[in-house]
């Protein structure tokens, strides 16, 4: 409940609030996932691959915010303004789709600016729905999306954006949520993305939400978010 109570509505006062261009985000996401795919090995920690590829890495850790529980920490390296720190995982619901039931008592439903919703809850009905959608859309030998973010040890360290807490008057936000549609994303690495359409891939793209650095972030800093909206039921 701490996430829900401390969240603030995202305010957009101009046509675009983007920190980094969509083209740059798409380029970085595809390049990083391609390199991660090439380096992945059971004997290598995903955080080490992230550090060697991007220059920084993140991990799940206890938050410094009172009562917030878990959060996300930059555990190695140095990220600069405009860098992608994490991705917000979950099932993507179009505006006309039934998000009401999984949103009940769920503080992890993020509302995009165009009315799409992403359910980043890794438990209960939300977890069942995500895994079911991945099973439906997967083509052997690769899954349609990453399911390891549902666990405490995700394969890709990036896929923990739902755990990022909101900043407050004492601790300022150092990331903001930026939406981007990935068109014609390579199937060979799409299994590393943490998002799946609720009703199937009717379009040739998938919506992702990147948490983009607002300033330089150093090893030991907690990742804290800027404005975003939640479903209130």
Overview of this structure, please?
The protein has 233 residues and is α+β, with helices and mostly antiparallel strands. It has one domain (18-230): SET domain (Beta-clip-like, Beta Complex), CATH 2.170.270. The chain is 21% helix and 27% strand. Strands 1, 2, 7, 11 and 12 form a five-stranded mixed β-sheet that branches. Strands 9-4-6-5-13 form a five-stranded mixed β-sheet, with helices on one face. Strands 3-10-8 form a three-stranded antiparallel β-sheet, covered by helices on one side. Helix 2 crosses helix 3 (46-54).
Write a concise keyword list for the protein shown above.
233 residues; alpha+beta; Beta-clip-like; five-stranded mixed β-sheet; 5 helices; globular; disordered N terminus
CA-atom Rg in angstroms: 16 Å
Low-pLDDT runs: 1-15
Overall geometry comes to globular
Estimate the strand proportion.
Answer: 25-35%
Write down the CATH class.
Mainly Beta
Q: What is the total tally of β strands?
A: 13
Largest sheet: 5 strands, mixed
CATH architecture: Beta Complex
* CATH topology type: Beta-clip-like
Order of helices and strands: HHHEEEEHEEHEEEEEEE
